[in-house]
Design brief:
- By secondary structure, the chain is α+β, with helices and mostly antiparallel strands.
- The protein has two domains: 145 residues, Vaccinia Virus protein VP39 (Rossmann fold, 3-Layer(aba) Sandwich); 137 residues, Hnrnp arginine n-methyltransferase1 (Distorted Sandwich).
- It has seven helices and 17 strands.
- Helix 4 links the parallel strand 1 and strand 2.
- The longest helix has 16 residues.
C-alpha cells in the first residue's frame, strides 16, 4: 500500500520525511525510548493487535512485538520503511511486525486495533503531524470498526510556556535565533523569569486540538531582561491510575526570541498570547507571540 498524497517540500525537508540520521539520534534518546518501552510493556499483552503510525526505525513496534502482539507499522518514507524492515528482520521480529509504506492519515488496519503508537511529536506540536494523524486514524478506525477506540501511546500531552532571559551573545556575535535545549541538561544561557504555564493539555482518545489560541497573564518571579519565551512539552506515554503514576517523556525545549526586550521585576505580570496550527512551521509559532503589560483599570477615589 503506497501513499496517495503528494509529498510537500516542507515534508521532504523535515516534517514527516525526517532524514535517517535524525532517527539514529532518536534511538539514543534514553528518556524517550525508556518511556515508550515501559508503557508498552505494561499495557500490551500477547494476542493484541497494535498499530504504529510513523514507525521510523521500528523500535517502538519491536517493543509491542516482544510482548506477543501482532503489529502493523506504518511509515510513509520509503527509504525509512525499507530500513525498518531490515532492522526488524535483524532482530528476528519480521514475522510479527508488518511494515507498510503508506500515509498514516489514510491507513485503516486489517482488524481492530487494541493499541496505537504514534511518536510524531515535536515541542509545541509544531512541524510534525501528531494531532492530524491521530485524529484521522480515529475517524478511519471508527468508520470501519465502530465507536470503540484503542489505547494510545502517548495518552496525553501538556504544552507549557515560560518567560525567560536568554543570552544571545556568541563570542561577541549577537544572534537572537531559536534555540533547542536538552531537557535534562544545564542551561547557563537561560534564566527563568516566570514559572512554566500550561496553555494546552489533552488526551489523545478525546477531542484533539488542531490549533492553539491562548492568552493569559504570566507572573514574573525573577527580575531580569525579558527577551524570549521557552516552550516545554510533556508527554504522558502511559498513565497508571491505580499507582498514581505515569511514564513520561519531555520533548526538547525551544527558546524563541521576542522582537524586543523589556526589563521586568519580580511581582509584575505580563500578558502573553499565541496562536498557531498544530504541525505548523516554527516561524508560525514565533510570529504569533505577543507580549504586553496587563491593562489595569484605575480605581475611582471615594469622596
Amino acid at each position: 500500500m503506497s501513499s496517495s498524497r503528494p509529498v510537500t517540500s516542507a515534508e521532504r525537508e523535515l516534517g514527516q520525511f525526517i532524514p535517517l540520521h535524525y532517527h539514529w539520534t532518536m534511538l539514543q534518546d534514553e528518556e524517550r525510548v525508556t518511556a515508550f518501552r515501559d508503557a508498552i510493556t505494561h499495557f500490551v499483552r500477547p494476542g493484541m493487535h497494535v498499530v504504529e503510525l510513523g514507525g521510523g526505525t521500528g523500535i517502538l513496534s519491536s517493543f509491542a512485538a516482544r510482548c506477543g502482539a501482532s503489529v502493523e507499522c506504518v511509515e510513509r518514507n520509503p527509504e525509512l520503511a525499507d530500513t525498518a524492515r531490515r532492522l526488524l528482520a535483524l532482530n528476528g521480529l519480521d514475522r510479527q511486525v508488518q511494515v507498510i509504506q503508506a500515509d498514516a492519515r489514510d491507513f485503516v488496519p486489517s482488524r481492530p486495533a487494541d493499541a496505537v503508537i504514534c511518536e510524531m511529536l515535536h515541542v509545541g506540536l509544531v512541524r510534525e503531524r501528531q494531532t492530524e494523524v491521530i485524529q484521522a486514524f480515529k475517524d478511519n478506525h471508527q468508520r470501519r470498526f465502530g465507536d470503540r477506540l484503542p489505547r494510545f501511546f502517548p495518552e496525553a500531552s501538556i504544552l507549557m510556556v515560560q518567560l525567560v532571559q536568554q543570552d544571545h551573545d556568541y563570542h561577541g556575535y549577537r544572534a537572537p535565533v531559536p534555540v533547542f535545549q536538552a531537557p535534562g541538561a544545564s542551561q547557563p544561557r537561560t534564566i527563568g523569569l516566570s514559572d512554566p504555564v500550561v496553555y494546552s493539555q489533552f488526551c489523545y482518545d478525546e477531542s484533539i486540538p488542531q490549533s492553539f489560541d491562548w492568552t493569559d497573564t504570566v507572573s514574573i518571579v525573577q527580575s531580569g531582561e525579558l527577551n524570549a519565551v521557552r516552550f516545554l512539552t510533556m508527554n504522558l506515554i502511559g498513565i497508571v491510575p491505580e499507582q498514581g503514576s505515569a511514564m513520561t517523556w519531555r520533548n526538547q525545549f525551544l527558546v524563541t526570541p521576542l522582537p524586543s526586550n523589556s526589563r521586568v521585576q519580580a511581582g509584575e505580570q505580563r500578558t502573553l498570547s499565541l496562536k498557531y496550527d498544530a504541525g505548523a512551521e516554527l516561524s508560525a509559532l514565533s510570529e504569533s507571540l505577543k507580549l504586553s503589560v496587563p491593562h489595569q483599570v484605575p480605581q475611582r477615589r471615594v469622596a
